[in-house]
Amino acid sequence: MEFLILRFFSFFFFFLLWFAGDDAVVWAAQPRAVDVGVILNSGTMVGKRSQTSISMAVDDFYAGHSNYTTRVALHVRDSGGGVVAAASAAVELLKNVEVKSIISSLTSGEAEFVVQLANKTQVPVVCFSATSPALSPAHNRFFLRATISDSAQVPAIAALVRHFGWRQVVPVYEDSNYGAGVLPYLVDALRDGADARVPYRSIVGSAASDTELDRELYKLMTMETRVFVVHMVSDLGVRLFRRANELGMMAAGYVWIATYGITNAIDLLGVDDTEAMQGVIGVRPYIRTSEKISDFSARFKRRFRIDHPADEPTDPTFYQLWAYDAAWAVSMAVEKTELINSAFRRPESSGNSYSTDLDRLGVSPSGLALRDAISAGRFQGLAGEFRLLNGELISPAFEFVNVNGSTAGSIGYWTPTNGLSKQLTSKTSGPAGLMPVLWPGYAGAVPRGWEIPTNGKKLRIAVPVKHGFDQFVKVETDPTTNRRHVTGYCIDVFEAVVHELPYAVSFEYIPFEDSSQSYDLLVDQVFLRNFDAVVGDTTILARRSEHVEFTMPFTESGVSMIVPIRGSNDKNIWIFLLPLTTELWLGSLCFFIFTGFVVWAIEHRGNTEFAGDLPNQLGTTFYFAFSTLVFSHKENLTSNLTRFAVIIWFFVVLILSSSYTASLTSMLTVQQLQPTVADMSQLNKTKVNIGYQDGSFVQGMLQEMFHVQKLKNYSTPGQYAEALLKGSANGGVDAIFDEIPYLKVFLSEHCTDFTMVGPTYKTDGFGFVFPLGSSLVPDISRAILSITEGEKMGQIEKAWFGDPSNCPSQSNNLNSPSLTFQSFGGLFLITGTVSALALLLFLAKFIYQEWDELRAATRRQSSMWKKMVAVAKLYHNVDQQSLASKREDNGSVGSPYLSTPSDTSFGDRRSDDMAETLQAR
Ligand SMILES: *[C@@H]1O[C@H](CO)[C@@H](O)[C@H](O)[C@H]1NC(C)=O
Ligand SMILES: *[C@@H]1O[C@H](CO)[C@@H](O)[C@H](O)[C@H]1NC(C)=O
Ligand SMILES: *[C@@H]1O[C@H](CO)[C@@H](O)[C@H](O)[C@H]1NC(C)=O
Ligand SMILES: *[C@@H]1O[C@H](CO)[C@@H](O)[C@H](O)[C@H]1NC(C)=O
Ligand SMILES: *[C@@H]1O[C@H](CO)[C@@H](O)[C@H](O)[C@H]1NC(C)=O
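Above: the input record for the complex with 2-acetamido-2-deoxy-beta-D-glucopyranose. Below: its predicted structure, written as tokens.
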């Protein structure tokens, strides 16, 4: 019986199949429905639009793949815009529907718990809105990001910041998982990619009221930085921009950069909102517009009108494109996965008291396979190629848009390989850089990214109140108005520097009285934020620069010492000897004697004045020789040979004596000024006091150098001079150490009595002081350089310190050397040669004339000595004879007083002499 019934049914079934024909095939391969959950916030436009987009994707997918054996059945749940509601929606889907996958449009915060659930139940969650890098597929195997992580856009932002050279950026972000997640990436990218600092982070509560937004914006307004990166959900972001516009922060000088959370929504904004966002630069992933997208847009709007008749349909944003692609990818993976419809495996109900509702959820057996299938999915989606890398979508390029009018126009692109470019072409990289940007406040130039802090307030600049050296800084109080007037070299330099800056800086000087105690105190005021800067003679020191920022130095640098100079030879009774060295004295003496001898030797025979007894002859000879020194000799010279030798000798004497006079003159006037202290070791004695300037860091330096010294402080150049002239013994000092600029000022006033000696200790000169990290410093330093390199600095220095050439440097005149023998060597050579020649000629003549007698006289003598004596005698005798005969001949030669040299010419006299001598023969 049973068999019969079975046969009948099978026959009937077969018949039915045959009868039904084609239709029966469809029926037989009825696709299996696969449950897929959708969690989104149905209360928001984004939720509604995404739901439409997902439904369209599933419909489109099966329209294109009608022979697929699976059909995705969507189960939509409302997340209600909260973490708890989203989690309970997920639990409900997993528990009751046993969905095989979840597509969600959750925020990063909401997604967090859902992702935990997914991990537990091994149900892949595909999320196209949770962009926070804090939630990463790398750590959650069942979390897949069908959108681009927020961290992908930070290199593009860094490239933008670098392109415009901004050095400081303040992130303004939402206090949420989404807002804070990107921050570490942003800070790192700015530091590494753009050398930009993040001096401050502005946190805005997710549900901040307008008052709270205003409070935060006011805080930003008082700060230096003017470049803001706004990272928050679009609703909050747009509200922030509206408030900023109200407060005047959409004005020239400000830079607003919006991350793609806001940028994606710009196209949906009303005119009021875009009006408030003029000049905002937005970053967004680059999605190439295509026919596919415009076709989708049209269908999307039709479908949206049907789904949500009450709402105004708009063009889909990137999120809708990603939602579409995500749903497509899930549908595709579902088809590829085997056993897709098997039920969840639940743990044995053991009555275990620990087991909770969550424990009983079970595990999806096909979860892992489905996850892998989604990950491996590759297709050309609406938003470009759909391809997950490590579980998340990657973006090949980012686009910068600039809100101008009611739209956001593209101003450039960024790719990891080519950086910024004006256009994006697939083959070659477009021209580098960006298109012209509309800046907030319609500013003409690129904002420099920072402003002197404080809203319209002036820079408070401390200036030292000095009690001396007021060429540097001088604070005067006008007795009538009681207003303080600050002038000086440092002030002039600073004002010239500020004038050089490409922007205006307004400031006021505030005299700081305690600076005379220590300049460290003054510099610390900037660190303590009591002042915004110090302008004055503040020396750049390593120790000070730990707390503050110094500009480049604007003066020369170094510490040296001044000491009095005194004439050390004033009381020397032998000073007349000093002009010539001993060598020269002795050498000159020798030449006097030699010349005297030559004159005597030649004149002795023919000149009665050189005759007589031996003492007489010696006396005459020496008297003659030394009287040439003052050209007061009275003896007549009879021989032309002597006359010639003596004329040359006169010439030498003239030069020697005038050199001596000049040298002695200089010695008696400037030459003997010498510093009283020649080097530092002379100061290293207990009785010696050393001076320094009030408040100067030199005090510390001296304490290190001289351990036992008594140090004394002075303020004015007048006190310097007084103390130095007194000396340590009388309560003054022996030396004063100070920086070279002050010493120069001092010396220009007290040029004659003091000098700078000793080694120069290097310091870095004077610089202006700003707080650490101040943006003004690089610009001021550049301006200082351009002023020092130009003529301006010279003019300022001349105006305050006078002409440096007014005081000749004395050190060159100190210790002018005595004249040496070498300096007159040439002269002595000439006179020596001439005298020797004259002597030789004379001897030759003598030997020639007396040859016979000489022979006779020498022949009679046997020894050499005796022969010499005989020759000398002959010389002496002949002499006497010739003189005797001369006296007889003209009688007048004998008296020196009766004859004048001008009587007869040398030539005549010479021939006469010759004739007479020959006649006497
Ligand atoms: C569906 O049909 C296409 C051709 O129209 C074929 O290439 C594909 O393999 C079919 N898929 C299945 C699951 O039968
Ligand atoms: C995911 O689940 C596995 C075990 O199923 C666990 O080892 C892992 O820690 C979980 N991961 C997260 C991020 O919770
Ligand atoms: C802004 O838009 C106006 C009109 O569309 C255009 O003339 C102007 O050049 C744009 N400004 C910039 C900086 O692109
Ligand atoms: C002075 O003497 C002390 C020791 O007495 C020594 O340490 C110091 O270096 C000396 N200073 C100078 C400048 O010579
Ligand atoms: C030296 O310093 C002391 C205290 O630092 C100060 O009272 C005094 O006026 C200074 N002397 C001069 C001459 O300035």
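Notes for the reader.
The longest strand covers residues 32-40.
The chain has 29 helices and 29 strands.
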